[in-house]
Design goal:
This protein is 46% helix and 20% strand. With 290 residues, the protein is an alpha/beta fold. The chain has 10 helices and 9 strands.
Amino acid sequence: MLSVSNLSVQFGKRILFDEVNTKFLHGNCYGIIGANGAGKSTFLKIISGKMDPTSGHVSLESGKRMSVLTQDHYAFDDFPVLETVVMGNKDLFAIKSEIDALYANYTDENADKIGELQVKFEEMNGWNADSDAAAMLSNLGIKEEYHYTLMSELDGKQKVRVLIAQALFGNPDVLIMDEPTNDLDFETIAWLENFLANFDNTVIVVSHDRHFLDAVCTHISDIDFGKINHFSGNYTFWYESSQLAAKQRAQQNKKAEDKKKELEDFIRRFSANVAKSKQATSRKKMIEKL
């Protein structure tokens, strides 16, 4: 669905990503995690085409559509709320705008063109676009009385809901969201969790809300040491598994240290003893292998 090939990102001497190769597959929801400054938001900007990597490339499967949750809350201030949501499907909105423009300057010459565009519009379920957008807005807590007002008249929290509706609109093949639960109340978060849990396509999300990641993610994608590794399961499963692995490594390291101490004690005691010198030498070699 979405492939990342030999991707590297470097800022000055700092290497953020180093030859990353990975794929995001259909039907999975990936939660991107990592320490502060690891590059989570930068990675989303790169795969969404808003930022170029130092080297490598990102490729979306032919014929598939990507939708990105907009971070600029003022980008659509000059547009009505309902229209802003429909704009989430760029191809559909472009056809709709062209049909409207042709009707505004109607002639016999452009009648055939209008007919061709309307066929495409119908194939994209365009005639239901406004009602679908209105339903999504209502589900996200934007009352019908605001659907035809300008975005500039909404407060910040209302704008966030409209922009989420825009990102979700039209069933995108790949959905990219950076901190989607910011400024949402409990009921709206619960609706979004349910929507994404039942979403059939690919989701790539960054969120500090662990409960949200538990509710929606099928995979956790950990950014660490310039690489990205996918792990099956939600955040809690990843966390408990990583803690168990760390505990096992610590136990193994302790056993190795204990063994090393035992061998060193033997060497100190018997290295000067001719009868034991061969055994002491053997144990030195064992230490080197630990």
